[in-house]
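Our collaborator T.R. sent over the components below with a one-line note: 'Predict the complex.' Nothing else. No constraints on interfaces, no templates requested, no preferences about which chain binds where. So this is a plain run: every listed entity goes in together, and whatever single assembly comes back becomes the starting point for the next discussion.
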Amino acid sequence: MADLSSNFIGIKSPNPFWLASAPPTDKKYNVERAFEAGWGGVVWKTLGAEGPPIVNVNGPRYGAIWGADRRLLGLNNIELITDRPLEVNLQEIKEVKRKWKDRALVISLMVPCDEESWKDILKRIEDTEADGVELNFGCPHGMAERGMGSAVGQVPEYIEMVTRWVKQYSRMPCIVKLTPNITSILPPAIAAHRGGADAVSLINTVKSITNVDLDHFSPFPMIDGRGSHGGYCGPAVKPIALNMVAEIARYEETRGMPISGIGGVTTWRDAAEFMALGAGNVQVCTAAMTYGFKIVQEMISGLSQYLDEKQMAMSDLVGRAVPNFVEWQHLNLNYVTKAQIDQDLCISCGRCYAACEDTSHQAIAMSPDRVFTVMDDECVACNLCIDVCPVESCITMRELPKGTVDPRTGKVVGDYADWTTHPNNPMAQAAE
Amino acid sequence: MTHSPLTPGIVPGRLPAEAYARNFADHEPALDRHEARVAADRCYFCHDAPCITACPTSIDIPLFIRQIATGTPEAAATTIWTQNILGGICARVCPTETLCEEACVREAAEGKPVEIGRLQRFATDVAMAKGLHPFTRAARTGKRIAVVGAGPAGLACAHRLAMHGHDAVIFERRPKAGGLNEYGIASYKATGGFAQKEVDWLLQIGGIEIRTGVELGRDISLDQLTGDFDAVFLGIGLAGVNALRAAGEDLSGVRNAVDFIAELRQASDVSTLPIGRDVVVIGGGMTAVDAAVQSKLLGAENVTIVYRRGQEKMSASGYEQEHAAQAGVRIIHNAAPVRVLGNGSAEAVEFAYTAEGPNGLTLSSETFTLKADQVFKAIGQTLTGAPDTLPVAGGKLAGASAKVWVGGDCAAGGEDLTVTAVAEGRDAAEAMHIQLMAL
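Returned assembly:
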């Protein structure tokens, strides 16, 4: 059984699976249930400044995208930060941390963008004995309109400024939570780094409308005939999150900065993928909201089995795929593959044919008795046939060995060569 | 309840009242909206899909399933009806396991095809419940066509003719329209008077008149029809029944399975129907299975189907055979009746084992006897009442001739299935339309 114990910026937890700051971590009752189920840590739902608590809508807070059997693929929410009094939250955090010393407990914070407000809240939480703080610069709805959440996260200068205040007024490790609602994730990440953040966590939710009520002509979730944009999360956002995590992991200035990966982590495999692209741990919300806290048990057993099978330590996994995440220009143009269809596995549905014939390169032949074969002289190896084939491993890619002729181009497959040296690249000449 | 399954002889009321309701309820309940969506999601939307090819009416199955999956079963029903106006009954009675579902690539992949039949029923049920009839008549052409037989072939033909603006008059010998949909299939496959509802729904198009109680050869002649109408379609089915050609066939208690099935379908209270304690059904097709299963459901203690050839030759589908076995019906293969034993009424049937050789089927000297107070003959229907002037091949009408088209079970070609009859009726209407309008 692999050792899953985690040390993330000095915060220890028995496993790398934390619950993200969100409805599941809003109060002691839920958090204790999560710890009982086996979660390694939680980021407590975002606390705001002292004063009258935030209010939430009293209609639906969530919108959703489903698969056919109502499998939840994406969730969108318009819930704000905690709507419970600050004092109650602080008291509960203290109680929980005292009782669950081996678990990570990080407090998420969001207060107005001025020094006094941050100084004040940091002082208020000092006494809780929490392990760290996470700065919520990500929430795209409700609070952003009040100059907080993603309104801060979208301005790198603010990120850097607030992060500095936090490091100045608090001894706690500081994680900066980034919003994906920007053009590039790098400037915010760099800003956090420059401000002295110990880590970044990402992604927060994606600004979104999940669907529209076609009878009442309102976005969902619908509140009295109207809707507002929400924050999108769940399996659907994972690809966006993976890319952003990996960009930070490979970029020169941010390379090596600890990353807490967030965004659609639903199974151990998702977690492992985030870690391979540079995340030191992961945070989960939607999967827990969909299935309950028990899912962490599958994540623990799955990651453990995987590491055992690979004979890897968890630290070997973190960042292992980062060197292989390159820019397009560094992809080998002399890597030539051809699709091939296993006729024994083929069920003759013809989806590969329709996809290739209608939308790609007309590289699959169909016989009158529904036998489908790839024409190597047309196949550009785009992979679409594999992606649409309903049978796993029925269509695979076969690599043409070096020295053979690609029947499509008539060219001999040569040694590694990428765009940077390609004759069609005007810049290639200049580089030489 | 005055009787039980153990009561000797042919008697009604063998079961408690609630058992009848249960036994003759919908045999495969309808999918609800969510079940339909989940079932629809399994369809791969194949290119040039094999299920379409396997459907005698060539329904665009992937399209209608996608329409269900996207929440528009009404559009799905339109897709179905465009090819098969009796898509509702076909969804219930088609041997889908030997047609579309056998061809489904998921049958090949995992032995579990998309539930095409049940999805078709879902779509047509939803649309019919909404009163949707998505077809209108073209401008009237003034052409009048006589359709003989209000079965699936005749109805499909008349509807397509009406769509093209022609007027159709259907002549039906029985009191009700529907043909075998109404008289010839097991009750639990078309509950709630579905066959009549579907006829009424079909007639909404207008331009179709049905005259029941009129029989070709008795009340009208083909000459009359060809004289009075611009064209004639014969969809007269197979009204005759093959004889057993075994001694004792005349004993009381021996009857045609089709008559039993029709009587059952028309009964308002099935508990009043008499049934034997020991029932023997002779034959190997759907009719045999329908008669046997319903005998069991009426409370017969022992029901046995005896078929003269091997299991692989039975025309009842594997699914039907399994259904019979589950209902408690015993199926004996490779045995043929030698004689029905009894004194005035049937008491038993003596069978000889058979063997298939180069010279056909031969009876072995080894015999066995089954107790039987009731014997149903289900050994095939024959063409009767067809005008002598029409060419016949292999016991069936051999195709169209001047002004006269044929289709359905009475016509050569295709299997004797409702769906085949619909296709033939529809296609005959299209051919008539082209000829009548000189297109």
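Summary for T.R.: The interface with chain B takes residues 67-70, 347-351, 353-354, 366, 370, 390-391 of chain A (CB under 8 Å).
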